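Usage example:
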Amino acid sequence: MSDGEIRRWKLTEVEAYDGPEDRACHAWKGQTPRNAVMFGPPGVFYVYLCYGVHWMLNVVTGPVGFPAAVLIRGAGEVIGPGRVTKSLAIDRIQNQKPAQKSTGLWFESAKEIPDHEIETTPRIGIGYASEPWLSAPYRYVWHR
DNA sequence: CATTTGATTCACT
DNA sequence: GTGAATCAAATGA
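Running the assembly step on the lines above writes:
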């Protein structure tokens, strides 16, 4: 990534975190300096260090004032939130950066993927609050 | 100011 | 299968 090489990644596994009602979202109880970016405009990255070693790469999707984001759990052959960021050398430098070419990280439109190639499952890694509504199928996995 | 949490991963038994 | 690692921020005293 440092030599100007352009790498294209297919997002194969994502997870949605939508709104103040969603307790799995870090912003469920209000805005804080840490997750403030999720309250900002969409199209920017929310990079969050979890467990002291793993960076979580998110993309803000909701409008200003509404905390919603999508967690990139898998890209290309790399599966696992912490591994994706490691492969892309993403850290807090990318936090709050807009998803555009000038930041070195951006999205391009892909061809439509048929629904039958997408599997929806409950989210992962949020067992600390075993509530039923957390099992909402907000995880999307693309099966080639 | 001290303690707890956390959207995980890796090593070891 | 179980538990440790380890940084930053939120919460509580």
